[in-house]
Every structure is written in C-alpha cells, then in structure tokens.
Amino acid sequence: MVERLDATFHALSDPTRRGMLATLALGEKSVGELAEPYAMSFAGASKHVKVLESAGLVARRRVGRTQLCSLLPAPLAEADRWLKQWEQFWTTRLDRLETLIAQEHRE
Fold first, then answer.
1. What is the pTM (predicted TM-score) of this model?
2. Domain assignment of residue 80, given as a range
C-alpha cells in the first residue's frame, strides 16, 4: 500500500495531471482531448497519462486509433483515508489551542 500511496501522491504532484484527473471525473476522454487545454502534443499528454496509469488512477483502452482514458478512483480514496488521520490530529490540536486562548481571555 505504501508504494501505491507514494505513486498516487507523485502523480498528484503535477498540476497538469491534477487537471487531467478533474477532466476525467466528468467522463471518459481521449488522450488528445486531455492534451487540448494544455496546448501540448499527444506525446506529452501520453507521458502524463502514463504516470497516472502507473499510479492506478487512470485506465487506458484503444478504440480503433483512439486511446480513451477513464478515471479509477480507488487510489484517491486510499489517499483520502491516509489524509483523514492527519485531519483528526490537527483538529484535536486546534481544539486544544482554542481552549487555551479562551482560558486566557477569561483570566
């Protein structure tokens, strides 16, 4: 799981790949359609898709000469679960800080 989580965060570290994932959240797209908003070549977009595929975030299939991509959300759910533990940690810390500040104001 650690390797998959590392691959997920690596894939998410690039704004172009995050944008591609957001586009794929709306439905299946071709590699060419994913490239359009970034004015990049098919080869450039394909490299980004390959990183997303390696992380398990995207599935690619051929229909004739077209490569269609679709979102695979499971790795994002795993990343969300991992991040939730830190959300709880910081919520607890901030609640304690809020309590200390309230006590100072009362004194």
1. 0.80
2. 2-106
